[in-house]
Amino acid sequence: MAGHQVINFSFWSFLLVVVMVMFFTINVSSVEQSKIKGMEMNVIDQCWRFNPEWRKHRQQLAMCSVGYVGKMTNNIGKDLVNYKVTDPSDHPLNPQPGTLRYGASKIQGKIWITFQRDMNIRLERPLLISSFTTIDGRGVNVHIANNACLMIYKATNIIIHGIRVHHCRPQAPEMVMGPNGKIMPLGQVDGDAIRLVSASKVWIDHNTLYDCQDGLLDVTRGSTDVTISNNWFREQNKVMLLGHDDGFVRDKNMKVTVVYNYFGPNCNQRMPRIRHGYAHVANNMYMGWVQYAIGGSMGPSLKSQSNLFIAPTENKEVTWRKSSNAIGDTWKFYSIGDAFENGASFIDTKGGQVKKPNYSLEQNFEVVDVKFVRSLTSSSGVLKCGKTSIC
Ligand SMILES: *[C@@H]1O[C@H](CO)[C@@H](O)[C@H](O)[C@H]1NC(C)=O
């Protein structure tokens, strides 16, 4: 009797062990799988792209940002207005319902803008995006091109995702609807794809920007807490400017994260050019340059971490330094874990220490080994999202 019980007991404990082993094996293999997938998809994308129902859960995106922008919690939740652009036309002073400008400038408060169908939008004047606005181009092909482009002027909590901005042209001073829905005078603009002026908490993700008269992305006049991720920058002389002019000392507080972007082909300089502030430039892919990739003046600090720099035939040096008599030569450019191909080189600043980004918990992300940068940036720019599949 007692013997029978012992056998019985060991049978059940054996079965338990078998079940546990099976359970852990299955579990481990799914962890392994997502690890493998994870290496092809960066942390931002992993956060929402695996969801085949992303169209029904568009706002999931807001919690996927990393870097200085933090999470976009203020762009979702109670009181959010869903707005669909149905009309590609534009009127800068009296925008009509259904147009992009009506949603982005006129309506105030939390708004999530999507597009009914593929659209080419030719803006008559710069579009001034108001605070708490998301522009979400996923699932359709939206071009903002061939005239005025995007501006974030004295506004905060803005997401721009999944649009193509190109062939932007300079604009003469004109009246335009401001980010508060009121008509205001706007000075001359240079023809940038996206320009930030005294803006904060802005996330620019998965856009394709190219061939503009001035630059592709300018972060200026006290703008800070910006993350520029997963974008594709190409066909451009001046790509990205962080800190607009030498005299604007308030940009000392500027903090920008530049991560998982693809630069090239045919980018000349400023990836980025930085003045005053601090940039964490990590896990980006550099497909050549002409003058330089990373440069600056006025005591900028830049941590270049685990980027892949592929040099062009002519000029192998990544960095460029412009002397500024006013404050002496005090660039802090540090390279950590970067990879250099085709003879690329990076002149590190001698002495001193690279500044840590000091990310908070919600800003923090793991910078991955540079050997994964090719795959992590392989879907940069506007994503191709199928009708029924994952994005
Ligand atoms: C992070 O904190 C350290 C220590 O306080 C400081 O020296 C450094 O400048 C900070 N980094 C940035 C980007 O401000």
TrEMBL record:
Co-factor(s): Ca(2+)
Pathway: Glycan metabolism; pectin degradation; 2-dehydro-3-deoxy-D-gluconate from pectin: step 2/5
Keywords: Calcium, Cell wall, Lyase, Membrane, Metal-binding, Secreted, Signal, Transmembrane, Transmembrane helix
Record SMART domains: Amb_all
Residues that span the membrane, as ranges: 6-29
Domain Pectate lyase: 118-315
Top EC class, one word: lyase
Subcellular localization, as worded in the UniProt entry: Secreted, Cell wall
EC number: 4.2.2.2
Biological processes annotated in GO: pectin catabolic process
GO molecular function, one term: metal ion binding
Presence of the UniProt keyword Isomerase in the record: no
Primary subcellular site in the record, as a coarse category: secreted
InterPro entries: AmbAllergen, Pec_lyase, Pectin_lyas_fold, Pectin_lyase_fold/virulence, PEL
Catalyses which reaction(s): Eliminative cleavage of (1->4)-alpha-D-galacturonan to give oligosaccharides with 4-deoxy-alpha-D-galact-4-enuronosyl groups at their non-reducing ends
Similarity comment: family membership: Belongs to the polysaccharide lyase 1 family.
Protein name listed in UniProt: Pectate lyase
Organism annotation: Cicer arietinum
Taxon lineage: Eukaryota, Viridiplantae, Streptophyta, Embryophyta, Tracheophyta
Gene name of the record: LOC101492769
